Amino acid sequence: MAETHSSRFILISACFLLLLSLLFNSASAQLRTNFYSNICPNVESIVRSAVTQKFQQTFVTVPATLRLFFHDCFVRGCDASVLLASQNGKAEKDHPDNLSLAGDGFDTVIKAKAAVDRNPNCRNRVSCADILALATRDVIVLSGGPSYPVELGRRDGKISTIASVQHRLPHPEFNLDQLNSMFASHGLTQTDMIALSGAHTLGFSHCGRFSKRIYNFSPRSRIDPTLNPSYALQLRNMCPLRVDPRIAINMDPNTPRTFDNTYFRNLQQGMGLFTSDQILFTDGRSKPTVNLFASNPSSFNQAFISAITKLGRVGVLTGNKGEIRLDCSRVN
């Protein structure tokens, strides 16, 4: 009898996973690179121009926009829900995990949306979610990274709650199993996860996010032994124990303004800022991929393009679902 129940459970679980897969594939299948060809044929050049102008004002545009896209897709899917504001501070963007999102990412989307809507043919016909996806590709290219075709056709979500963020974003202290589990829940493989982690070649974090690694790692070792000792001392100098934990530190100490594979070479030297970075090299299951990306920029770029394209399909709203927001910060 127990064996029968077990078999039924396995069958039901398999059917459930198949249903989820069909639903996921059905929505993402409606995305296509030429979605706006008859609606707003110049949308890509309009967005690119606006993003380039913002980039020329501040480099923070790059990591801020890229991180905004990742946070949006991982919480409710790529529906621009992270852009929604609330008067009572209960939206996604108000969650502690999102408070560090730089304002320049939001501003990039707002300015690109305004530029699109200045074109009479395009006004209120391009979603904020698609504009964010295009802007993300553009900032990657502007910082020296690879270009790639962006699938379009997303609609904007109408829901944004602070509760929806809980346990949806990777934590700086995650181990490989935790990282793989979280990314797998979005249809992403370990290779996808490692490639997307390579985005840490850009941008910055704050001392409070990794201070435990350099001051109070364990009863046996105050400094995380997987950290390069010289790098740990540099971090201590930049992040004194009793100063503002919001001090910004470059994720990549060597080429922080260039999208390249230096992040992976840093991991080989024990210079991953987060535990979740360094574990990619110290865990034997992911180490070969890190070594490949460190030695072969082309392999990293190809894997990154594949991974961010798959990321852009997560939880998308298409067809009659969602809406085209008139203002990216509020529902219509």
Automatic annotation (TrEMBL):
GO biological process: hydrogen peroxide catabolic process; response to oxidative stress
Site feature location: Transition state stabilizer: R67
Keywords: Calcium, Disulfide bond, Heme, Hydrogen peroxide, Iron, Metal-binding, Oxidoreductase, Peroxidase, Secreted, Signal
General function of this protein: Removal of H(2)O(2), oxidation of toxic reductants, biosynthesis and degradation of lignin, suberization, auxin catabolism, response to environmental stresses such as wounding, pathogen attack and oxidative stress. These functions might be dependent on each isozyme/isoform in each plant tissue.
Active site location: H71
Gene Ontology annotations for the cellular component aspect, listed alphabetically: extracellular region
Protein name, per record: Peroxidase
Record-linked InterPro entries: Haem_peroxidase, Haem_peroxidase_sf, Peroxidase_pln, Peroxidases_AS, Peroxidases_heam-ligand_BS, Secretory_peroxidase
Cofactor(s), names only, from the UniProt record: Ca(2+); heme b
Its EC number(s): 1.11.1.7
Gene Ontology molecular-function annotations: heme binding; lactoperoxidase activity; metal ion binding
Residues that, per the record, bind Ca(2+) 2: T201, D252, T255, D260
Residues engaged in binding heme b: H200
Catalytic activity: 2 a phenolic donor + H2O2 = 2 a phenolic radical donor + 2 H2O
SUPFAM superfamilies in the cross-refs: Heme-dependent peroxidases
Cofactor: binding details: Binds 2 calcium ions per subunit.
Record-listed substrate binding positions: P170
Subcellular location: Secreted
